[in-house]
Structure formats: structure tokens, C-alpha cells
Amino acid sequence: MRDLITMAMPSGMSEGFDLAGAPLKTIDVGFVNGRMYLRLTPLVGGGRDLPAPSKSVLWLMTRLHPAFRKRAKRSVRAIDERFWLQESDRWEREWKPKLIATNRRLGDIDAAVLSDADLVAHLNAVWRHVEWAGSLHFRLHTSDLAPIGRLLTATRGWGLDERKVMTTLAGASPATSAPTRALRGIADELARVGVNPATLSDVREASDRAAELLDEYLAEFGNRVTTGYDLSDRTLRELPRVILASIRHSCSAEPSEIVGDQAFNSLLEQIDESASAEFTNLVVEARTLYGLRDENGPLTVEWPAGIARHVILEAGRRLVARGALDVLEHVFDAAITELGSLLEGAEYPLAAELGLRHQERVGWAALTAPLTLGPVAEPPDIDILPGRMPEMMRAILTVTTLLDSADQTDSLSGTGVGSASYRGIARVVADADEAFERVNPGDIIVTRLTVPTYNSVLTMAGGVVTEAGGLLSHTAVIARELGIPAVIGVAGALIDIPDGAEIILNPVAGTVTIV
Description:
Distance between the termini: 42 Å
Helix content: 55-70%
Largest sheet: 7 strands, mixed
Low-confidence stretches: none
Strand content: 5-15%
Oligomer: single chain
Radius of gyration: 24 Å
């Protein structure tokens, strides 16, 4: 995953920034002791130790430098032509069908029956797909955030409540609730035939329709890494107990599109009639791209990575059998090219070398890493930028402030999502893997933050509390789509909320109360 991110993020973000006409070249990535660090690279310059130019020099450079002049023209076209809608159309028409078809085709190949030579060829084909999809993942993040940022920037000027503005987008992310709907279909069929399954075999034997629905669910979601984003994390297919629990305790999500329409109508009454058309258009565009944010990761990262995981594990089993690997888990400490060479008979890297890499990687987890490396650069004054760059940058900055909340000063308070309080047992977990092991249906998940790998377990949760995140975080998106209450950005939640305590979430007030 380190190798993938180091390639895919700068490549994809470079394409996205160019499409948007942004004054940025890309985002550089560096890994130090297993921790990822990012650095925005300006369109011109960007030396690590160079001081930022003065305002007058920057103004002059952005008007005279050929790269800035070209980008300035691009920024005008990008907004006038709504480049994000073009990207969304291409996603639906070209990229998404290609991803689904390729993911299914590669995932259907049984790596265990391949010869070593064919396994190497299959591994390389899978990894080429992983790299292409990973680069696309980051390119799309420029498009899926732009219209949401434009909506929020405009509505801030109109004095509208940001929480209510974000609620207008509820129901616009069907991919978020897709696993829940699929599980609900299986549960309904089991209820129809009167079967309470104890195993997935019981589900298959309940009826032909139940078996068919389970197979469809596994074909769509089974090969996605679920307990984390690394290739060492497990896929949903490897968690039959979780799948069974999800079926048995599935519930119908609140009709979130109704909630979104109600919020839209309420806000429409609060703004001047002269701005109603602009507000409507901004909401429509934000809704169009809103679903792409949460659909992007599962199709471009989680599914391809899960396919690669199964192929890599098969390679590892063969290498262990022939003594080229001491422990199966060490297969994740070899590069893709090294795995191919080992399968073809190469002697390096030695089993002992991979064992040392594994020990080093495990040791990194115990280190306390700094949040930043080196001095933090002050951002330039965006209003001096040419073209429509200031407009786009204001939208981007608005969005980034809502991906994570500012520190809360009040005890156990944060940003609430939802309209009704919920009382349940708190399960304090470090990651999705631990959540799958410990969370019971109806529990309130308390964690640092959630990502799409939490989606399956969140369908069983009664609510969620996170230390990090804001109105645009994954937690906020899935809480709106599934209709579960959440309080986000609660400073000290992992320390102040005891595991197993009974707590009350009040999303309207944005508070957590320990009973």
C-alpha cells in the first residue's frame, strides 16, 4: 500500500489539480517509519527550504509565469464548464462500469489452480489494475469536493446553518447504504421461509432465492478489504461471522432522501427569492457529486486491494511451502516485483530479510510520530491569484475545514448528525478490525474516526461517536445515509468514555452523556 500511495496520489492529484485550474502541482507523499506525510506542491517552485515569496512577487509571478497563465485560463473554463459534472458523467458512463467489470473478472479467477507462471502473470495484471484505479481515486477527489465547497461557500454568505445545508445532501449517496439494502433483502427472504440461520450454509439451504441473494452480495462486496485499507487487512469474504450477524440484525435505513428534501425546502424558505435559483442549482450539483465521494473508495481502492490480497496470499502459501518464506504474514513485506521474482525461482529477498522487514514494520506501530515534519508553511493570500483560482480555492478551503472539526472546548460535545437521541452501550475501538470483533448489534461505536472500511459494521450500530471528523467526514456521510445518530469531533472521547458504559447520544445538541 505504501508503494501504491507513493505513486497514485501524486499522479491522480496532479491530473485533478490541472482539471480544476488550481495553483497547485500535486500532493507529494513521504513515508517515515511507516507514517504517511503529505506536502502540497505549488505550481511553480516548491523547494522545501525556500521561503515563501512576498505578496508583490507572488502577484507578479502568477501573471507572468507561463504555467500560471495557462492555469489561470484553465480555472475560468473549469468553473464555466463545470468540470466536475463532466468527470461525474465519465464516472457513470466509462470508469465505474470498467471498474466493476474488471474487479469481478479478476476476482473470479481462482489463483490456487494457476501454475506459478500464470500466477505471476495474474499478479502483475491485478497490480496494474490496482495502480490505475488508485490514481483514478485521487483524481476524482478534486471533482467530488468542488461542488460541495461551492454550495457551502455560497450558503455561508447567506447566513444558513451548515448542518442543515449538509442535510440537504442526505439520500444522495446510494452506494453508502447499498450493503444495507442487500442484507435486508436476504433477511426478508429468510423471514419469508421462516429460517433463523446459525451459519452461512444455513442461509444457502434456506431457499434458492436466499442462496442467490447471498451469492450476489458476496460477488459485489465479498472481495473488498474491510477491516482496514492495507493489503494485510481482511476482506469481507474472510469474515463469515460478521456477514451472518449483519444479515440477522439488518434493519431498514431511514428514508434519507425524504430528510434531504425536507431540509432543502426549509432552507429555501429562508433565503431571498432572487437567490433561490442559484441555491437550487448548487444543491443539485452537490447532490450529483456527493455520492461519488463514498462510491469512489470502495470501487477504486477497497475492491482492487482485496483482489490483490487473495493473489498475494496464494503466492505466499507457495513460497512458504518451498521454504522461500518463513511465515505467511511476511508476504506483505515484499514488493510486488519481488514476489514475482521469488515465484520464478529468484533467491532474493531471503526469508530472513523479509522477517526483519516484518519486525521493523510491527515495531513502527509502537512509535509516537510527530504530526508534521519540518516547519509548517503559511498559505498565501488566495485573493491575489489570477483567473477564477480564488473562487476554486475558497471552495476547497471551505471543504477542508469541514472534513475535520476544530477542537471542542466543552466536555463530550461535538458536531451532531441526526434528529433523535439514542441510548446504548459504548464500544471503544481502535479500528474497524476491532469493531468487527467486539461490537454487538445496537452498540454505539466510539472511535477516532471512521472510513468506508467501517461500513459493514456500522449497519449494525445504534450510533457512533468519533474524536475526529466534521460535517463532510465519512462518519457524517454514512450517518446521514443510514439514519443513525452521530456526534463527531468529540475531543477526548476515547479517554473520557469508558468502554462498556451506557451513554446517550443527542445529535441535536451535539452532546454525549454517560449514564
